[in-house]
Design goal:
single chain, alpha/beta, Lyase 2-enoyl-coa Hydratase, Chain  A, domain 2, 6-stranded mixed β-sheet, 4-stranded mixed β-sheet, 11 helices
């Protein structure tokens, strides 16, 4: 029994970013209840931390996360699943207000793929492989896979991936719009942290509301989403960051955003 933490956290307060790394390498970072609780608790703590503005979640070179821990579920009854409600952990991830980047290398399957899609954007190494193979063990994706994958890549591709259980590689995932960019394996974490640091220079309030507005595009009608976007846009005019940002633009200098 190891005493090593299941989630390793590295903070860079100078760049205002934090890196969260899964630490279950022998199990290819399979997402059991402890891992997901540790991840959610770490994300929630950093979401409350004003010194950190953007988060990056990664695994190792072999796997981001190769799925849920099947051993925890193999003998479960419907009542067990309802009572433990493990999938509620993915809802906790979705409620994080700060931008969260998934940095994916190797296998990103099942619950791992669902987790990556629940984060805000995906940076993929060339070795990354994305899939929803639940059909191979007699179930379907249950933590958002049938919904988020379909919204990301369209019905036909999602249907093929989910019904066949076959994964796609990083280049195909990028072509389909599932990932934002593909980078060499050895540059994955560095690239994701550089992107996080660039995002962290923006207004924390605007980042939070921009994330909310983009997510609304998936959950509302166009009319409702446009009205929601407009309210968020107007709301930011109550912030000091809006005044600072527009003054800096007019004065041709870099803004100094405080998150107020």
């Amino acid at each position: 029994m190891t005493d090593e933490p299941l989630i390793l956290v590295e903070r860079d307060e100078e760049r205002r970013v934090a890196l969260l790394r899964f630490n279950r390498p022998k199990q290819l970072n399979a997402l059991n209840g402890q891992v997901m609780d540790g991840l959610c608790s770490a994300l929630e703590a950093l979401d409350r931390d004003d010194a950190i503005r953007v988060l990056v979640v990664t695994g190792n070179e072999r796997a981001f996360a190769a799925g849920a821990d099947i051993g925890e579920m193999a003998d479960a009854s419907p009542i067990d699943m309802l009572r433990t409600n493990r999938i509620a952990q993915w809802d906790r991830v979705r409620r994080i207000g700060k931008p969260v980047i998934a940095a994916v290398a190797g296998w990103c399957l099942g619950g791992g793929c669902e987790l990556a899609m629940a984060l805000d954007l995906i940076v993929a190494a060339e070795s990354a492989r994305f899939g929803q193979p639940e059909i191979n063990i007699g179930v379907i994706p249950g933590a958002g896979g049938t919904q988020r994958l379909t919204r990301a890549v369209g019905k036909s591709v999602a249907m093929e991936m989910i019904l066949s259980g076959e994964p796609i590689d990083a280049r195909e995932a990028h072509r389909l719009g599932l990932v934002a960019r593909v980078v060499p394996n050895e540059l994955l974490v560095e690239d994701a942290l550089d992107l996080a640091a660039k995002i962290a220079t923006k207004s924390p309030l605007a980042l939070r509301l921009a994330k909310e507005a983009v997510n609304a595009a998936y959950e509302m009608s166009l009319t409702d989403a446009l009205a929601h976007e407009r309210r968020l846009f107007y709301l930011l005019f109550a912030s000091e960051d809006q005044k600072e940002g527009m003054a800096a633009f007019l004065e041709k200098r870099d803004p100094d955003f405080k998150g107020r």
